[in-house]
Design a protein that fits this description.
heterodimer; A: about 100 residues; alpha/beta; Transcription Regulator spoIIAA; 4 helices; about 35% strand; B: about 150 residues; alpha+beta; 5-stranded antiparallel β-sheet; 3 helices; globular
Chain lengths: ~100, ~150
């Protein structure tokens, strides 16, 4: 289960994720980002309430990062221990801007 | 590799037989999480096991029997000394050893990264042991996590 809460500002989009970003839910995030990223120059993904992330979720983050590389910046905030370890072992900590 | 002695379902061994389809992902996760709570698995290890289960069951669901639908058997056991959760996934689909996959290059930039190929790599990193065998027409993939 994944809850996606979006807040838009002037060219910015903050997405709060709650639950699990896995095989079942990753397509929901992908679709949700796809419909909201037009014109966004600052994308923030808030993972404070995200329990874990599997490779299906990593794939969505990678494509979001590629889109944002072209049109602005993406950052990830409030990353917990389990998710941080996933970012570290996969080398995603070097690709993503984690604050 | 250790002996592949697989216990019978009973007091200490739980077993779930379920159609290997993505729609059953949540049922599988719920079944395993209920067991992990029973055996008092710490929260961090539980999340890591959930990630491994997501990778492995989704792989079986997507590739083992396509385009047919087949069953997967998931066996749950504990080990003592050191205390560990052991989960064995079995299917009768195409013979496939995921451990033979080339490891992804984790130093590539976002633009250079291929989409995919990370799942089993991740499983190997966050579990203490991952073993594969093909026996009697079955793919057998076993993960162990100290808890």
């Amino acid at each position: 289960m994944l809850k996606i809460k979006k807040e838009t500002g002037n060219g910015s989009l903050t997405v709060q994720l709650e639950g699990r970003l896995d095989t079942t839910t990753a397509p929901e995030l992908e679709a949700s980002l796809r419909e909201s990223l037009t014109g966004v120059t600052e994308l923030t993904l808030d993972m404070a309430a995200l329990e874990y992330i599997s490779s299906a979720g990593l794939r969505v983050l990678l494509s979001a990062q590629k889109i944002m590389n072209k049109q602005g910046e993406m950052k990830i905030i409030n990353v917990g221990e389990v998710i941080n370890e996933i970012f570290e072992v996969t080398g995603f900590s070097d690709i993503l801007n984690i604050e | 590799m250790r002996e592949w002695i697989i216990g019978k379902a009973g007091d200490d061994v739980k077993e779930l037989t379920i159609d290997a389809v993505i729609g059953n992902m949540e049922a599988v996760t719920d079944y395993i999480n209920a067991w992990l709570e029973e055996i008092e698995c710490p929260v961090k290890a539980q999340m890591q096991i959930d990630i491994a289960v997501d990778e492995i069951f989704s792989n079986i669901a997507r590739y083992a029997y396509t385009p047919e639908i087949g069953e997967a058997v998931i066996r749950l056991e504990t080990e003592s000394d050191p205390h560990a959760a052991v989960i064995t996934f079995m299917d009768r689909g195409k013979a496939y050893d995921p451990l033979e996959l080339k490891e992804p290059d984790t130093t590539l930039s976002a633009e250079e990264r291929p989409i995919g190929g990370l799942g089993i790599f991740l499983v190997k990193k966050i579990m203490d042991d991952v073993e594969y065998a093909y026996r009697d027409g079955q793919n057998i993939l076993r993960i162990r996590k100290k808890i």
